[in-house]
């Protein structure tokens, strides 16, 4: 326990270790947040996707932060739903037959470009008599425009963008332009009017139990803080969920490989003879086997489940160079006089292997385990990029895979590749920084003064 | 003939190392002289700073040195004033060389011992590799390694032979002074005796001077003309060997001598209770005071170095 | 357990005392096979080649020899770490070759082992408390309180007091002398009958060396321990051994009481060892030591006849290089394997 505290104190002396720890801490917080807010089933459902989940998002929209880097501000996708309380609801009971329900949506529009789609999704409750709605559009300069009036069903979608009548009323301008255009700008090259817009939905229901709700979706050129992909999915989901997957895969693979390698090497060295020979030969054979090809074959012919891939990865990584270097270290430790002493007081083979041989190299092992994590995180991502990612789980590698197969770079959708790549790099950097510092702490010979 | 009065004069040599816990005062104001063709033994227990003294003299310093001052006058030149490069070219291995601790295990396992012995001559005397084999062969004869061993690899040699090779490596450039750091501590008695025979012969035939650093009092007498006893970073006594082994002055030296087991002595040897002080914050006054049986009030003050019939002792008893 | 043992083994040499031997080594051979490329026989290393002696309960003996003379292999066979190729080790009247696992564990608890390098002998990642507890756990002492009690007692005996100061420490926090005390406490914790001490003081500073030797002697006296003290340093032998065995190239060449050997060495090799051992004396610097030429022989192909004959200044041509000398007894209790002492 005390040595653990001392190690922590030592870590405090290395700024890079602290930076690494902070980043890892943030990644862990992100993982916890992802797991809590988007439970596994929900994540799988969202990732499977479909129009009914992601209808509100534009396709392959870059993230909202693009606006920080460009002078011309692009509109960001906006969703306002009366059900979520994002509209002001006014109920005016008039007579026994008719009740007015007014929904007022207010939003700020400070962009230099026009949106792509304006859509209203209505839901209503009624027994026989259809409710009726009128949509009014109030611009920042106080003009009030009539958008449409119609009766609605239980579910009704109104796409203002495709309303030819509205287009005609707006003087031939497409509604997404006409509703936002500054009346003082050049009609041939209109610019949007910035300010606070208001949408008033004036509904009338004809039954006492009847109700209206509406969701207004303004599809801009940008969407969300992570952007969307070709299936309108918000990339935030795989970016968030990729974090615990990457961390878990890296940690389990690195720990599993490290510990098993160490234990197998210790057994080989302790029992020597044919046990050692066998381990050596297996290692030599495994070293010439093409690692990635085997994984690809397993993924193609057997299972692409992340757990299968994890298992095969560990299995193939055990019998590699690591076992040889552990062997060399164990050979030295085996000759230590404290081991001889343990034999002289009759300690059993198992006791010597687990309590005398292995603890001796734990200090060497820990930095290696930590610095080994990124390699496995990258491996998982690489497999996903090659199309061997887990079929149901959203991961960083899958984002890159999707981006590549959909020509993201060719189409200039850099965010699609850069976001997961940046996370991968940060993760790698964090573990590398921590690992190298730990190496210096545990191996005083490397310590700089 | 010697051009200068003394081969080596060390004055107030100080070497501190920086560590996390504070400065380690490994060598703290050491003075001693060495004549031509003499051997001085630096006696001390582990951790007293004797190996650091060797490093300080040869300027083989680790990176964490925090203080390195004093003067080292070798044949009239203060080598402390030289730059590192001048020192490397003109002093190290040319004027004085080192047989480091456990040298026999420090030979390069994949280079023939002949080439390893010739290496310092190539580097420091500018000889070609084939020219350098001549002095190497000569030194092989001096240390008693058969000529044909020149083509062998270290693993083909016994421990004693490898130690001789390490000595030959220190000798090949014909330096005036060789520093030996525990040259025989890992060797058997017969091999030890053999190595000391070799060193005595070298001293006689080549006129070399030696600084022998050791904790082993019995074998140190095999080579010693003078003795300097080191305790907690300081030299507490310097004396000629004859009088030292007969009658040491400093209470620490006396205790140390009494602790030596002798072959045919009936009397039991003694031991010194307590531990040497830490070199990070050595105690004020005499550093041996806490363990000294003859301690009195004065010992709380730093004792002066007192000259007594050509011997020097850092103890209030002789003031 | 009674000290009186019934020894059924044949006693080949006269024991130095009238006591029954605690340990009897009978014509012990420890050979290691050399293999070429991992299989194929390539010869034998005859590390121990026909060693016999008896050790009485409470007796301390010293085995003196140079590195590579086979004394470590002898010691490790006695500790039960090497299986003898030939011969028998009899402990307390029982043959080691007939031990099963449980009996072997019992044997391990009867023999304590003190090593040369105290720092290397202690696992660096264990505290003193844990280090001392290990032998007790291994020996099957189940009761935690009893283990603690015995640890405290063993530390008391080696003067590692107050115990609480030392129990939580790791070996690197201790001085060399304290580390060696932990090693001794570990060897003593099972209250053994026999201590095997392999150069217990050669890595220590002069000022602590004597302290440790005295501690070992007092332990030996208080517990009536038998001690096998293995060393290359003749100067420390007389302080707590009764007999000395000189070992050369796998064989014991001289066995004698300490004073006999120091004042009247018989074997030429013993002469050489004594001549090479120095007492501090300024005159040492002015004279050359008389050292036999050459080096100890290879144990793979030892010289024929007497193994010392190629280096021996008194070798008898035609005899020493042909025939292996048996043990002669020129004076009572003083045996020597040298043809010079052949009696008619």
Describe the structure.
Chain A is α+β, with helices and mostly antiparallel strands. In chain A, 52% of the residues lie in helices and 16% in strands. Chain A contains 15 helices and nine strands. A five-stranded antiparallel β-sheet of chain A has the order 2-3-8-5-6, with no helix packed on it. A four-stranded antiparallel β-sheet of chain A has the order 1-9-4-7, with no helix packed on it. With 319 residues, chain B is α/β, with parallel strands linked by helices. Chain B has an eight-stranded mixed β-sheet, sandwiched between helices. In chain B, helix 3 (113-125) runs parallel beside helix 5 (159-171). Chain B has helices at 50-58, 84-90, 113-125, 129-143, 159-171, 189-206, 217-220, 241-246, 251-258; strands at 8-19, 22-34, 39-43, 65-74, 77-78, 96-99, 177-181, 209-214, 226-231, 234-240, 305-308, 311-314. Helix content of chain C is 28%, strand content 24%. With 344 residues, chain C is of the alpha/beta class. Chain C has helices at 71-78, 101-110, 118-121, 128-138, 144-157, 163-166, 176-188, 206-223, 258-263, 268-276; strands at 21-36, 39-56, 60-64, 86-91, 94-95, 111-114, 194-198, 226-231, 243-248, 251-257, 328-331, 334-336. Chain C has an eight-stranded mixed β-sheet with strand order 6-7-8-3-9-10-12-11. Chain C has a four-stranded antiparallel β-sheet with strand order 2-1-4-5. Classes of the chains: A alpha+beta (449), B alpha/beta (319), C alpha/beta (344). Chains in contact: A-C, B-C.
Jot down its keywords:
B: 319 residues, alpha/beta, globular, C: 344 residues, 8-stranded mixed sheet, 4-stranded antiparallel sheet, 12 strands, disordered N terminus
